What we know:
By secondary structure, this protein is mainly beta. It contains two helices and 14 strands, in the order H-E-E-E-E-E-E-E-E-E-E-E-E-E-E-H. The protein starts with a helix and ends in a 5-residue tail after the last helix.
Amino acid sequence: MPRRALAVILTLVAAGLVPAAALEIEGSARFGNAAFPWDQTAPSAGAFPGDSWSWGGSLGFDEYLSEGIRIDARYETDPVLRHVVAAAMVYESGFASIGLGPFLGALGSADTPLKAGIYTTVEVGWPGLAFAGLESASSVGAGLVSAGDLLLESSRLYAGWYVPNAICTLSIQSKRFDLMRTASVREQDALNRYAFELDIFDKTAPYRILTTLAYTTLSKTWDDDATGSLTDTLGALTLGGTLTMRLTPALDLVGGFDAAVYAFGLDGMAARSPAASTLLFNATLGFRVRFGRDLLEAAAAEQDSGPIDR
């Protein structure tokens, strides 16, 4: 009897959600050489190498359950945070939206394969004029006490405004991954990024172009109780672009590439800047596919009002 009742409840829920729901799924693959290796346990002897390859990917979905309510969920292999999963129930009303949900760091260390946290997002906006928002994710629980303990933090503050056929966005982003490598050695990977984005679109064209100018600092710190603290930091001025092609009303193809126009060492790497001939870059290739009438209509209107997710 309990199994039959559960089956009936699930059937009713599915029947109620599917007709009204709209779904967008997106995924991407990433490849580049502008990151410190996760397993690096000491400062490098020479200049920042151009052959320290990193790769990863992301997969996520946005499901619009009803008017003003959606579920966002993402998995990503991040150069700083390693493997992360975040999800949120987002409520939109008028000029504001707010979301709250779980945040999870996975496979950060053998002793702590899962690290739970909280993800929040808030945005306010005036359609066609301006918008601003904050995204934050942080692990919870005890700090760095024993070997294998870790902490994750990520935040992004942004504000933007609309101009004819374009959206301008200024943003500040920070990420931090702290790991207790041993009982006496702590490691920290950190990223700070200041960016200006120009999202160019035309409602009559099946494509849009996002250009980005950013200044980024990427650092790795080793704090040893016996020998002290050492930090390698890479600073870079980067220029990038992302092209989104609408192949069909339900399918987009997305490709991006950003490279360091000027890269240099800081802190312990001050005398070990990358060679002038070294190209530091990140490249991505992905897709976005939609299901449901409501979301297709939103995607069509997106050419006028800008992207659903910034």
